Amino acid sequence: MYLRRWSERRNAQKLYNRILLDNLTPINHRYAVDLCSGDGVMAEILVNLGWNPRDIVCIDKFSSPTPLVTDARWLYVDLTQWADAITGNEPVPPIFMSMKSTFHIVISAMTMEVPLQKIETVSNFLLAPGGYSYHY
After folding, report:
1. 12 backbone dihedrals φ, ψ, rounded to 5°
2. Which of 20, 21, 75, 108 has its CA at 20 to 30 Å from residue 1's CA atom?
């Protein structure tokens, strides 16, 4: 398993401001997923705004040695492979199918490792109708 230590604090403030502007709360948008989550800095913002960590899923290809939100559900997945499965190039594992259209908030960091198109494919797959998607 690979380890990654990464936190993007400058984008955390942008996310915090967007959530406030969009009037999102844990009551009206309960479930959130943080793609390419690194240490979970974006999930930490949600927790600080009142979200229950158990309603947040953090997904990254690599494991952080110091996750910021330990009570969140952490999954270690290659988003490129997941996007390929969604678009029909590979079978979609049942665990991923169970998360389809589940999340009211999808947060994703832009990385050089995963093309934007692949991140958008996974984001759209996870996003519930009427949900919000943030790419940073």
Report:
1. -60, -40
2. 108
User: SS3 for 105-117, per residue?
Assistant: EEEECCCCCCCHH
* R_g over Cα of the chain: 14
Please compute the mean of the pLDDT values over residues 48-56 and round it to a whole number: 97
When pLDDT is averaged across residues 7-29 and rounded to a whole number, the result is 85
CA 57 to chain centroid, in Å, comes to 6
Nearest to 76 by CA among 93, 89, 64, 85: 64
Handedness of CA 113, 88, 136, 14 (dihedral sign): negative
* pLDDT over 90, % of the chain: 64
